[in-house]
Amino acid sequence: MLLKLNMNAIMKKMPEISTEQLNSLILSIDSFNEAWGIKNLQSQHLHMNQAALNFTGIPSNFNIEGKLDHECPAPWAELAPELQDHDRRAEKTGKSVCIIETHFWNNEESIQPYFCEKFPVYNKDKQCVATVWHARKFNSLSPLELIDKRSPSALILEPPNDLFTKSELRIIFFAVNRLCCKQIAKKLELSHRTVENRLLIIYQKVGVNSLHQFITYCKNTGFDKYIPTELISKGVLFIS
């Protein structure tokens, strides 16, 4: 009964699509465990599955139907212009468009990068009538991991252990990503001698003698997936 009531409200905002097609679309995304949602050509939200409601942090007493991004009572509403640009690109290109959304998702206390893909939806007359979006934790895969045949894994914003200070964690991030001491020093506004000395202290803490050994340590402990939160910022990055 709830689905039928939602259908009536949604159909008024998207008359170009048949009830049968929309019903099938809603039933499909409601069966998924990851976040999925539907928007019309005016960028109004029409439906979100439970995972999407959790992902966006929409209050349980808030009716999402017919709302624009900036009207949603959630921190990510400030990304509305970029999110609507995402809608337009999917509609215009006629294919999926991917972005990385970095913000406070799933009611988490720190910002997190998520991979979001939007697809155009067509009716029987081959007219674009809506977009469907899907979000999941952003996974990364470096060239070294590809060679080692390792599976992609989610980036983490909490250090795997508490061995290191905040300043050491920043150096670790850049060192693992193969920046030299002079490059790290420039990024962190330190002298390269300071970076070299701190790297030696970092090596001593885990009992290694070289960057190669330390990178192996990072792979084994998860530090190769760690990003200090102060090094990332809220926003949207288009990747296709």
From TrEMBL:
BP GO annotations: regulation of DNA-templated transcription
InterPro entries: PAS_4, Sig_transdc_resp-reg_C-effctor, Tscrpt_reg_LuxR_C, WH-like_DNA-bd_sf
Domain HTH luxR-type: 161-218
Keyword set includes DNA-binding: yes
Keywords: DNA-binding
Taxonomy, superkingdom: Bacteria
Gene3D superfamilies: Winged helix-like DNA-binding domain superfamily/Winged helix DNA-binding domain (1.10.10.10)
Signal peptide region: none
Cross-referenced SUPFAM superfamilies: C-terminal effector domain of the bipartite response regulators
GO function terms (MF aspect): DNA binding
Name of the protein: Helix-turn-helix transcriptional regulator
